[in-house]
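**User:**
My hope is that you can spare some time for a protein that puzzles me. This is the protein in question:
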Amino acid sequence: MSKQRIGVLVMSYGTPESLDQVEAYYTHIRRGHPPTPEQLKDLTDRYEAIVGGFFPLRENTNKQVQALEDRLNADHPELSFTCYQGLKHAAPYIEDGVERMVKDGIRQAVGVVLAPHYSVMSVGGYIKRAQDKAAEQGLDIRFVKSYHLHPQLIEALSSRVTDTLLRFGDVPKDEIRVVFTAHSLPEKILEMKDPYPEQLLETSRAIAARTGVSNWQFGWQSAGQTGTPWLGPDILDVLHTVSAKERIRHVLVCPIGFVSDHLEVLYDLDIEAQQTASELGVHLERTPSLNTDPLYMGTLSDVVYALCERN
């Protein structure tokens, strides 16, 4: 008897694969409106700044998708899992992933986003695109909305905080400000009672409790330039405030909203925030990204399996 097949649509933001793809990628983000020469130069410069223009996100995402497929099949050998990639702003697009599943004869699928926290503007948008395409194709698909308090996720993030605190040497723990961060979104989500900010605080509180960290706060990063207010305070403003008003000289940043090394981590934190910290005389450290950490893969395996209908 053949095993029941489950397709898993693994969704993420996407990234260009080379510098010559940056303009098309940015145009897609801007809903078909090409960036100005200044905007294009700014984004291209940022990519060039991270290890010479190497694009780690695409490779990291490929590895995460393969690692999840391997983990699902190891954890649940009674089923046969195949993972498909679906990107928001680059090929293969979300719709492409759904089409491939259908072409491969998949009848039952689960969708999951490589982001632990739900917002209608982020994860909600991925789900809607996949849902619309699946309905058009006649595919039965269920979606993981969030997994921000999964025990293995909290364990993985907590161990990173504990390990990174050691980089401050003999500095007492209560003199180190831990700043949890995530990608900012437009402030209008607050009027919509969107769960995103509270889910992020719940994750932060769980990590702080597990690690015994009492000196912590939340900060936002990587806000878009849209002319409308985005959630703050931004991490750069946080660094200015804690150094000037609180005389804090040691900061650990834990970007809980990001699960792999990419531009918002490697540039916005490792270059931009690090430069600001240096100018302010602040010792700044960042926790390593989850990438293919077995605890993160275990988290994803659990939440995907929970939505599988077993025959």
In short: The chain has a mean pLDDT of 94. The chain has eleven helices and eight strands.
